[in-house]
Specification:
By secondary structure, this protein is α+β, with helices and mostly antiparallel strands. It has helices at 2-11, 17-22, 36-47, 74-78, 81-91; strands at 27-30, 55-56, 64-67, 97-98, 105-109, 115-118, 127-138, 144-148, 151-155, 161-166, 171-174, 182-192. It has one domain (2-192): q2cbj1_9rhob like domain (Jelly Rolls).
Length: 193
C-alpha cells in the first residue's frame, strides 16, 4: 500500500502547482518518519507526561491528550529540516511549512478509545492544511480506516510511521481499542491556497 501511494504521489511532482496541492484528497502512510535518534527522543519526551497532566479529548471517545505549549522544545525536534522535507516530498507539495497556530498534541488511545468517521476540520480558512499523525507506540488491536472510492482500507500504524491527511479530504476513523494502547503525536503543516 505504501509503495503504491508513494508512486502516485511522485507522479504529481511534475504537474502544475494547483494539481499538486489538490492531490492529497486521500491519505499517505509512510514508515520511518524520523531518524532513530530523533524518534527515540520524541518517545522519551512523551513518556514523561503523566496521566494527571492529560485531559479527556472531546474529539474522540475515551482518548486522552496533552497539548504542548508553543514554546516547548519539542517543536524544534518534530519540525526538523529532514522531517519537513520528507512531508513536502511525500505530499508532492514543496511549499508546506509547519503550522504553529495549531499546537502539537500528544494523544493516547487506551481500552475503549475510538474515533468515528470524519473529515479533518479546516482550521485556517486561507491555508491548505495537512494533518500528520506520528505513531509513537502501538500495542493495540485498533486500526485506522479510510473510505476511498466506496472501499474501506485499513492501517495498523507502526511506531515511527506518519499518516498524512489533507483537511476536508478523505473520510476516516479509528476503530475501538479492545486491548493494548496506541500513542501518537498530532501535528499540522500548511501552505497558502
Amino acid at each position: 500500500m505504501t509503495d503504491k501511494l508513494t508512486r502516485k504521489n511522485k507522479m504529481y511532482k511534475n504537474k502544475t502547482r494547483s494539481k499538486r496541492v489538490n492531490m492529497n484528497i486521500n491519505m499517505i502512510y509512510e514508515k520511518n518518519a524520523f531518524t532513530k535518534n530523533t524518534f527515540d527522543n520524541l518517545v522519551s519526551i512523551c513518556s514523561l507526561i503523566t496521566e494527571k497532566e492529560m485531559i479527556d479529548d472531546i474529539k474522540a471517545s475515551e482518548r486522552q491528550m496533552y497539548v504542548f505549549d508553543k514554546n516547548d522544545p519539542i517543536y524544534k525536534i518534530v519540525f526538523n529540516k529532514n522531517f519537513i522535507n520528507k512531508v513536502r516530498s511525500i505530499t508532492g507539495n514543496p511549499n508546506l511549512i509547519p503550522c504553529k497556530e495549531v499546537p502539537i498534541e500528544y494523544r493516547k488511545y487506551t481500552k475503549g478509545s475510538h474515533m468515528g468517521w470524519h473529515r479533518d476540520t479546516q482550521m485556517l480558512p486561507d491555508q491548505l492544511q495537512y494533518e500528520c499523525v506520528i505513531t509513537l507506540s502501538n500495542t493495540s488491536d485498533s486500526k485506522t480506516l479510510f473510505k476511498k472510492n466506496n472501499r474501506i482500507e485499513e492501517i495498523s500504524s507502526e511506531p515511527n510511521s506518519v499518516i498524512v491527511v489533507r483537511a476536508k479530504g478523505i473520510l476516516h476513523m479509528v476503530t475501538k481499542t479492545n486491548k493494548g494502547e496506541r500513542t501518537i503525536l498530532k501535528i499540522v503543516f500548511k501552505t497558502k491556497l
